[in-house]
Amino acid sequence: MLRVLGVHGAGSHRYRSRSGTADQTRATLTTQWLGHLRTTVDGRTPLDLRVAYYGDHLEDGDRDAPCEDDPSFLTPGERELLARWVTQLWPELAAAPGDERAEQALGWLTRAFGPGTRLFGLHFCRELHTYLTATSRAAAARQAVAAEIAEHRPDVIVAHSLGALVTYQALWEDPGHETGLLVTLGGPLVLPGALGEHEPHGRPPSVRRWVNVADIGDIVAVPKAALADRFTGLDRDLTINAGIWEFQTPGAYLRSPAVARVILEG
């Protein structure tokens, strides 16, 4: 029996709004992840999979849901993060006036990747900024992941998008259970400002092997081809083409035969 712990990425609000409680959201995510994996992992392969849920710690009930056509709900810090992120994808943005950069960033995302990217960009920057600046909330998110690791004792941890950053830091803070394999999928670990200058940049001590996977079209995993240059102890850094613009969810990754092979190595 291969014990796998998934860690979700940004945008979990949509699951919470449909499911209700944190436990129900966790169950929904687990069902979805298992369904995706089973498209490429033979049903005869025994899997004990669950998904750790931390998104409720990053929600802010005092703020309205974002409007798809208006970034004005973002705080100045969130707008700056949005511009810094998109500049990694579109360097020309650096020349735009400061008060126009957020709107130009969203406009470019829409033109380059479609209208759905605009709303994703708003949510992603708000969640990432909350994680990077709200110390107590970020700590609670990491503790939620660490608790799931301690309880499930996985052979493999699969962390997607923002969850890759949360998991990476959680593993350094609380090594706990030794894990055979950490798989990060489309994470923002090398995004400027994601990790502090003095934080460790290497495989967490409780992880025996670390494999990073990024889709060629994943706009969260930027800058491209930088992880292996900046982190020690990374065993493999894979670039794949999942063939579907679906980076904001883990589905395309989990349905990829290349990712399935990596997970089964655990």
Structure description:
By secondary structure, the protein is an alpha/beta fold. The chain has a domain at 2-56 and 150-264: 3-Layer(aba) Sandwich (Rossmann fold). It has 10 helices and 6 strands; from the N terminus they run E-H-H-E-H-H-H-H-E-H-E-E-H-E-H-H. Strands 2-1-3-4-5-6 form a 6-stranded parallel β-sheet, sandwiched between helices. Strand 3, helix 7 and strand 4 (179-185) form a beta-alpha-beta unit. Helix 1 (13-19) packs across helix 2 (22-37), helix 3 packs across helix 4 (101-113) and helix 3 crosses helix 5 (116-133). The model has no long low-confidence stretch (mean pLDDT 88).
Task: Give a topology summary.
Layout: E1 2-7, H1 13-19, H2 22-37, E2 47-52, H3 76-89, H4 101-113, H5 116-133, H6 135-152, E3 156-160, H7 162-173, E4 179-185, E5 207-215, H8 227-230, E6 236-240, H9 251-254, H10 257-264
Parallel strand pairs: 1-2, 1-3, 3-4, 4-5, 5-6
Helix pairs in contact: 1-2, 3-4, 3-5, 4-5, 5-6, 6-7
Highlighted features:
266 residues, alpha/beta, Rossmann fold, 6-stranded parallel sheet, 10 helices, 6 strands, 43% helix
